[in-house]
Amino acid sequence: MKISELLAQDKITLSFEVFPPKKAERFEAVKTAAEDIAELHPSFMSITYGAGGSTAGFTAELAADLKKDTGVPVMPHLTCVGSSKEHTDRMIAQYRCENIENIMVLRGDMPASGEAETDFTHASDLIAYIKKQADLCIGGACYPEGHIESYNKNQDLRNLRTKVEAGCDFLTTQMFFDNNIFYNFLYRAREAGIRVPILPGIMPITNAKQLDRSVALSGTNVPERFRAIVDTFRDNPAAMKQAGIVYASEQIIDLIANGIKHIHVYSMNKPDVAKGIMDNLSEIIK
Ligand code: FAD
User: Fold this and answer.
1) C-alpha angle 179/105/97, rounded to 5°?
2) Which of 16, 75, 159 most suits a substitution to test ligand 1, by most atoms within 8 Å of the C-beta?
3) For 128-151, what is the mean pLDDT?
4) Which pTM was predicted?
């Protein structure tokens, strides 16, 4: 099923994200975790693409297996970095054969080596290229706090509009820990003429190191309220995990209470975390 069709229904959707392994020997373990998450009946699952295209084969295989074995709609990611036109053509042909109807298209980041093949500069270039040759529902990324490389937020929004005009059917945000940042972004995006669905991306933080790493990579603002929680529980892993699941669940409940129907969760191959969130929302998203 196309995600655009799911998002057009008057129903709450909750989707989960998994990432493929870097090495073949980890594939079965990752697949088992992804299947456990699929058993929670998310609206769809997305499968990320390793930096520089390092996991191309595993992303495609995991997406195909999940669709075939669980029936959950899937959305493999693809990045400009690591993608020539020929590589893109091959991936799209494969997804067509497997009846995969959704793809998340990103620019990606250059690997540390600084070497990666690419025929596309911005995500919008790859989106336009794919849109011309395949009837896929295409997702793209957006940044409520501005992309880390962008000159300013208005320029970032103009670039985002170009991405949508290139053929992006919906957007998913980078993580944020303060919902007001999302509400403000949504307002500005609509003012800028961006009309496609925008899914807030919620990252349950279950250990303090994960927060430090995520913030260093994305520059995401950490509100005092959340900082206090992480500082209090950082040396107590079980308590930190519980607090992280509750904080993410509260963010989702607040979003739903403010009229946001479609939410994406960065579940990071953790079925217990995904289940904790589902349990906390069981009556709300029934
Ligand atoms: P773009 O849309 O190309 O934007 C990148 C920068 O270029 C921005 O500053 C933008 O303002 C600017 N820009 C865009 N278009 C133009 C233009 N036409 N002219 C001038 N400037 C322009 N990375 C992975 O490697 N694998 C993944 O699976 C993955 N999944 C992600 C999923 C989500 C939901 C998000 C939010 C991010 C994901 N990323 C992933 C990270 C992403 O690849 C990086 O954040 C990357 O730096 C930007 O990707 P983008 O698609 O937003 O790029």
Assistant:
1) 130
2) 159
3) 96
4) 0.97
